[in-house]
Amino acid sequence: MHEQDKQRLEQQLNVKTFIDLMFHKIDPKNLGHDGECFVNKTVQLVFDAYLEGLRPNPARVLGQQLYAEIKTSSKYASQIGWMRHGKDYPFPVRFEADPSGYIVKGGVGGCYRMEDVDLLFKSDESYHRIN
Q1: Distance from C-alpha of 12 to C-alpha of 26, rounded to nearest angstrom
Q2: Residue predicted with more confidence, 82 or 118
């Protein structure tokens, strides 16, 4: 596959994921995409910010992708219900240093502490708990 094809597929995946995440937050008639950008300029700005939040891009992770579920005992447990309505739960994560301890990056909230999530990996379409 050529790099240009990979970039196009990655862009399509990002647009689809963004629309899935924003479907209940942004009026669906404002989510029109013409193949290059969102027709609504404000939605395009929100999408650009969303893309910035993906760097480094989890879609380009080499090797095993890690996933997380929010623990029911976490102060973020209220996010579980509405995250399950989307297709990305458990959600893909990556790790970054954070002086506040929010080293797990990903999901709708954007960042979590290790004590807030259970880590998983996916094999043969099923998730397996790590911790």
Answers
A1: 19
A2: 118
SS3 content of the chain, % helix, strand, coil (to 5): 35, 20, 40
Q: What pLDDT digit, counting tens, does each position of 20-75 carry?
A: 888 888 888 899 999 889 999 999 988 988 888 777 655 555 567 899 999 999 99
- b (16+ CB within 10 A) / e for 68-88: bbbeeebebeebeeebeebee
Question: Rounded CA gap, 79 and 91, in Å?
Answer: 12
Tell me the residue type at 124: D
Task: Choose the final residue of a domain: 35, 57, 79.
Answer: 57
Cβ-based neighbours of 67, under 8 Å, separated by 6 or more = 90, 91, 92, 93, 119, 120, 121, 122, 127
- The DSSP output letter for 25 is T
Domain enclosing residue 71, as ranges = 65-129
User: Are residues 10 and 53 part of one domain?
Assistant: yes
Q: Which amino acid is at 115?
A: E
> Given a cut of 90, is residue 93 above it in pLDDT?
yes
